[in-house]
Amino acid sequence: MSVQFSGWEVFDDGASFPGLELDSSQKPQSRGVYTMYHGTSITSARVIIANGFKQSSKGMLGMGVYVSRNIKKATAYPLRSNPTDRVVLQVHVRVGRVKRIDKDNHPMQQTWHSHGYDTAWVPPKVGLLAVRSGLEEDCVFDPKRVKVVGIAKAPNDSIQKELQELLIQSCGGGGEGAAEVCSLCKRKTQQGAPHIKQQCWECGKNICILMSKHFCPAKP
């Protein structure tokens, strides 16, 4: 016996909805917004939260803000520092145009931005000598494309609480850290912008237009 139904299912690559995580082996889609991580010291974390990111003056991929979708990569930074002085910031990154750098001495390894790209992406396990960990690495040229949205890791609860409070203050008591979650699609809402909800045209159930899946029995 066949069963009739109505509905839809959406597969999201993470580019449309900030905060979704895409596997580090998958290329960030141009113009997407992705959750990534940045490792830094406690002092630098305070400065970044209060004033925003600044470009690193040097690095394997040239000038920019270095981040990764792999939190393990960020946890190792700053290199050669005491683990008790390491903080991992959770960030949202507007990647813009993305250039894949997948071999040593790539012709655009440090000049990708002059060719019109906003982010350089080193995939995991491509064998670059400069990336001994084999973990994904990204470099975002414009610091304004990188926004701190959370404290992913801190050396102790006291530092975690301090940085979280500083983040809330820097957002004026609101921002993404205080975002509500839609009861239907379970996604975070932007402050002051609730999701549009309506009734399903088949079953009459309340749905959110951003739901990734909805099934209902068809009417006889």
Would you write up a description of this structure?
The protein has 220 residues and is α+β, with helices and mostly antiparallel strands. It is built from 3 helices and 11 strands. A 4-stranded mixed sheet has the order 3-7-6-5, with no helix packed on it. Strands 2-4-8 form a 3-stranded antiparallel sheet. It has a two-stranded antiparallel sheet with strand order 1-11. A hairpin with a 6-residue loop joins strand 9 and strand 10. Helix 1 packs parallel to helix 3. The longest helix has 14 residues. The two termini are 14 Å apart. About 7% of the residues have low confidence.
Tags for this model:
220 residues, alpha+beta, four-stranded mixed β-sheet, three-stranded antiparallel β-sheet, 3 helices, 13% helix, PARP catalytic domain-containing protein, Poly(ADP-ribose)pol_cat_dom
In short:
With 220 residues, the chain is of the alpha+beta class. It has helices at residues 42-51, 71-75, 157-170, and strands at 5-9, 33-41, 65-67, 86-94, 98-100, 119-122, 137-140, 146-153, 197-199, 206-208, 213-217.
Bin the strand percentage.
25-35%
Largest sheet: 4 strands, mixed
Percent range for helical residues?
10-25%
Distance between the termini: 14 Å
